[in-house]
Amino acid sequence: MTIGIDKIGFATSQYVLPMTDLAQARNQDPEKFSQGLMLDALSITPVTDDIITLAASAAQSILDDEDRQTIDMVILATESSIDQSKAGSVYVHQLLGIQPFARSIEMKEACYSATAGLDYAKLHIEKYPQSRVLVIASDIAKYGIDSSGESTQGSGAIAMLVSSNPRILSFNDDNVAQTRDIMDFWRPNYSSTPFVDGMYSTKQYLDCLKTTWAEYQRREETDLSDFAAFCFHLPFPKLALKGLNKIMDKSLDDSVKTRLKDNFDQSITYSRQVGNIYTGSLYLGLLSLLENSQTLKAGDKIGLFSYGSGAVCEIFSVNLVKGFEKMLRNDRKKDLENRQVISVDQYEQLFYEEAHLDQDGNATFADYKTGAFYLEAIQGHKRLYKGKD
């Protein structure tokens, strides 16, 4: 029995900030962002568009009635949780109309937890082959205005339907994970924005990749020539490029290096326009690769490196199945082009607006553009979500 991803959906905000405008406002050379980070634009969310609305929008784009009746687990991976107790997946389960006898949970470990969600989903399908598991990575990467991390913000959600006999890709049993107790990026409960040791985090990302890749090679007796492509967690694309170069063995044939670099460029196409989406960044890269590469074919093996600060990382691989291209879109770039361009002033107003509750725990919001779902209001400290007709 093969188990893997049957469908993939994506949603991001309806507002976009060009990096050239941010560079000008911050008195920076635009090439610092376009080349130094390999970012061209950032998705910016208003207060009515959060991890719930993004997650539900991403999943709605791929689910049909049969899916809603057979899904028996919903896993939401995020580090932008809206509640310290109630799982965001419970809201998503209701908004999507999934049958009631399903387990709904939320997972956290910085940007890594979506990979843990897929691992859990795989084990569940092994036990119950007829079931389907919806794994969603949804996050809003938010830092302070004019902070060192401001240029690596973003927002979005990736929804993945895991099943037996998948129509996009199958998982291989080759996962290698590593844990390190480090303080490279963290956000205590009392802070709305994270604390970041940027240079240290970059070094840890690259060293975790190097050491986990070495262990993966030892266990699997393989090298990069066995892969058609390699996808990476994408806090910003330039870091992932450094990662690829770090594991690229000099003894590899030039044809292998060219293949990997060309497919890497395809894997960052969407992230260049969206920015960092934390738990979903790796899988946005995977989706971008699948929808933009002109060379992938059924049977191709793709490597994936997942990293979450703190830190947990994992390397594993998947294989494309016959007909995978029929399950993808070839017009997603149009969605990104149709976002509303905003100024830096508008970005600062939108991105940092927070709910102002009255003494009874109520709040209303202005009418902002969102995807298929939106946060309508807060009443008695309860968040009320609605879908658009």
Total beta strand runs: 18
Distance between the termini: 39 Å
In the CATH hierarchy, the third-tier topology of the largest domain is known as Peroxisomal Thiolase, Chain A, domain 1
Tell me the domain tally. 2
- What level of helicity do the residues show? 25-40%
Q: Quickly count the helices.
A: 13
Apparent shape = globular
Radius of gyration: 20 Å
CATH superfamily of the largest domain: Thiolase/Chalcone synthase
> Sheet with the most strands?
10 strands, mixed
Q: Which spans of ≥5 residues are poorly predicted at pLDDT below 50?
A: none
What is the highest CATH level, the class of the largest domain?
A: Alpha Beta
Class computed from helices, strands and strand pairing: alpha+beta
**Beta-strand content bin:** 25-35%
Estimate the mean pLDDT confidence: 97
CATH architectural designation of the largest domain: 3-Layer(aba) Sandwich
Description:
The chain has 389 residues and is of the alpha+beta class. It has two domains: 3-170 and 330-387, 3-Layer(aba) Sandwich (Peroxisomal Thiolase, Chain A, domain 1), CATH 3.40.47; 171-323, Peroxisomal Thiolase, Chain A, domain 1. Helix content is 33%, strand content 25%. The protein has 13 helices and 18 strands. The protein has helices at 19-25, 30-34, 51-60, 65-70, 88-96, 113-127, 198-220, 237-247, 254-267, 271-274, 281-292, 332-337, 344-351; strands spanning 3-11, 15-18, 41-44, 71-77, 103-107, 132-141, 154-164, 169-171, 176-179, 185-186, 195-196, 229-232, 301-308, 312-320, 340-341, 363-364, 373-379, 382-387. Strands 1, 4, 5, 6, 7, 8, 9, 12, 13 and 14 form a ten-stranded mixed sheet that branches. β4, α5 (88-96) and β5 form a beta-alpha-beta unit. The longest helix is centred in the middle third of the chain and has 23 residues, at 198-220. It is globular. The model has no long low-confidence stretch (mean pLDDT 97).
